[in-house]
Specification:
homodimer, alpha/beta, 37% helix
């Protein structure tokens, strides 16, 4: 699939017919006729989700009531689902929990890393991240630095300051997104983790746009911490709880300030002082939203049934096709590819800058081709191999150029853009 | 209802027939024959919950997909549902949001209070709470103090140190539970808030066992912050998101370190520095679990249809009845009431200490009478006027004394207790 791209719509249909992942589309319920290119913002609904929700509501909550914390395994959901997710991100057993939000988990992992550094080298007071990172990653780092005071600060990598230049002896922890939310550019996790360790830093990887989309090997890469969400490529449902991983080497030496009762060694002993449980469980804090969490399993089960290598190969073939079809028709349109061409630097979405990006995306959405828009001027197309095929990419690019070539967008829509996801 | 308690089972049935709240029971789906006395741990399932979940899954997620953040109002859920809750706790419009967990919201409000004090009187470095508070309240305070360092510490009120004695010039903020999770004892919120303010402190009220159970008037009481959960007396579903309130006087002067993108003034502008939105919205952090949050509305709508005064009057009548029936039959049993007798000091549950409390509760649960157990030795009975009647209290006490009088419990079960909710 990686070398010979289809060059006609019929060839796309033929490629889809031979696709080893083609049957996974039936595991999702998508509206007829829609081409959904926003699975990197909110994944599609697994077919099993309503039955699972009904079971949780009727049998577990309705009938089991409070007993279901034990009998239906509600207490075990963060760890049990974390273990299911582990194999998709190169984590070991009992190294991942599903809990809280990505933002909250960033806070926990940054705080834990800072605490480790306070015991190793207290002069390390800088949290390093990227100006181009998803904003909440920057904001959470700012929140910690501001709260701690004592000289803690945030430093941003950007076009004027490379990672290597920024990695001074004052850097405590580096927070990077494995795949950039806007451009789709991907860091080399192994080389970058080593580069940071060589400079004495710890690293937190945000896998929001990576988990379930690209192969991730946290243990192999020697990463320290990772967080991410389950509602994008993992299809857990709107706002489904996030995940957090810590390298087993840190399990009993990390501490984090969101020290709620779910992370206590003996939560039901009702002791009057906090003592963290051993291991990843100390990243738990408060009572979790059971219904939203239970649905994470529906999405995970679909991803676990697929070969991650096949998903990656198809993702690259589809993004290659998208890029090739756009290149062939771009002409004079001010449409600039901002996603890397090199496979090893590309995640699973393709993004273009266009001065009228917002209005063009609205015109596409009106035709049932759902991508999304990101500031500034970026049209973003998420490629989810489990429910998209070659012909979907073909049809999406056809529609894009029908709009571009015939100027079928309403530029006045631009002012709406900041209210839109 | 407050003065004449029924003294026979028939009189209980007659009282139920005259109860103005009797029809609310049909708004909940409870298993036939069960007497559910644990609504203070997990509320019952509202009849509308499955239809709501189905709508969110099929129409909003399945069909609307990413568009539902706007078209189905997902972004507005924290504020819209917060406004519904506001009237139940004496809050004003746009003063409450539903979000995250009670533990996380405690962290935010304690951190916000500390930050306010840092600008007023930086020598105030003590977080004051109760040794008998729900443990997560203590643990979250410990987490903040530990993380801040710089002399911050936690002080605990207990039988050796009263609130007044503990309120030194070093106290920044006091975190109290309006109704104690174990004993059901209730603070006078107005007098206690004034007492704390007079000593220069700020106060955070944890309403977990109060919201929906007893009248709460946060604004009238002059409170500063409040947090609480929606899955107890508000019947929001297992682990449904919590709430947080801040007095409007603090709206533009508070700051909190969980500064995620949902609390940003312009979240979709993707700016590279945090700027909090004005008002309660700055207590938001990350993307919320939409399905679990949407179900909060089912429970809120039932509570909003009831008169809070009628709920309180019935709660006191039922807890009075429970206490009177137990007193009449206690005899030589080592069953000690630990809930205050005075109405103005009692929440909506009744608790007894008994050396074999755990095993006795297990015997009750085996008969379909669901209360719960809390360390040490405490049998806890939650009284939820919307779906319990006088005859339920009568039958529960009958069963309790059948077990006590005939020693029908298995004391060997005691060792299981720490694994049970």
């Amino acid at each position: 699939m990686e070398t010979v791209l289809p060059t006609t719509r019929d060839a796309c249909l033929a490629a889809d017919a031979q696709d080893s992942l083609r049957n996974f589309r039936t595991d999702f319920l998508l509206p007829e006729g829609l081409i959904y290119l926003d699975g990197n913002s909110l994944g599609a609904r697994p077919r099993t989700s309503l039955a699972t929700a009904t079971r949780v509501l009727e049998d577990e909550w309705g009938t089991g009531l409070i007993r279901s914390w034990n009998t239906a395994g509600w207490f075990d959901l963060p760890g049990r689902l974390g273990n299911k997710l582990a194999t998709l991100i190169g984590a070991g057993p009992d190294e991942v929990v599903i809990t809280d939000t990505t933002s909250i988990n960033l806070f926990k992992s940054l705080a834990a890393a800072i605490r480790i550094q306070q015991s190793l080298d207290p002069a390390r007071t800088v949290i390093l991240t990227e100006r181009d990172n998803f904003p909440t990653d920057i904001y959470m780092a700012e929140g910690i630095a501001d709260f701690l005071g004592q000289g803690y600060s945030v430093r941003l990598i950007d076009e004027t300051l490379s990672l290597q230049e920024a990695l001074g002896a004052d850097v405590a922890v580096v927070a990077l997104s494995h795949v950039n939310y806007r451009t789709g550019a991907m860091w080399d996790m192994t080389a970058t983790s080593k580069q940071i360790h060589d400079a004495g830093g710890l690293v937190v990887w945000d896998l929001a746009h990576a988990a379930g989309a690209v192969p991730v090997d946290l243990r192999g890469a020697g990463a320290d911490f990772a967080v991410g969400c389950t509602y994008k490529y993992l299809n857990g449902g709107p706002g489904s709880p996030a995940f957090i991983w810590v390298n087993a080497a840190h399990h009993d030496r990390f501490w984090q300030p969101l020290s709620g009762w779910w992370g206590h060694a003996r939560p039901f002993a009702m002791e009057d002082s906090y003592e963290p449980v051993s291991g990843i469980g100390r990243f738990l804090c408060g009572t979790q939203p059971v219904l939203s969490m239970a649905l994470v399993e529906c999405g995970l089960d679909v991803s676990l049934a697929a070969s991650m290598d096949a998903v990656r190969a198809k993702s690259l073939a589809l993004t290659d096709l998208f890029i090739a079809l756009v290149s062939a028709r771009r002409g004079e349109h001010p449409l600039e590819l901002i996603t890397p061409m090199e496979h090893e630097r590309r995640g699973s979405h393709v993004s273009y800058a266009h001065p009228d990006g917002y209005a063009i995306m609205q015109a596409l959405i009106a035709r049932g081709i759902i991508g999304d828009y990101r500031e500034p001027h970026v049209l973003r197309f998420g490629i989810t191999p489990l429910y998209l095929g070659f012909v979907d990419v073909w049809d999406a690019v056809e529609a894009l150029f029908d709009i571009l070539d015939n100027r079928l967008w309403d530029a006045s829509k631009f002012q709406e853009r900041l209210a839109v996801t």
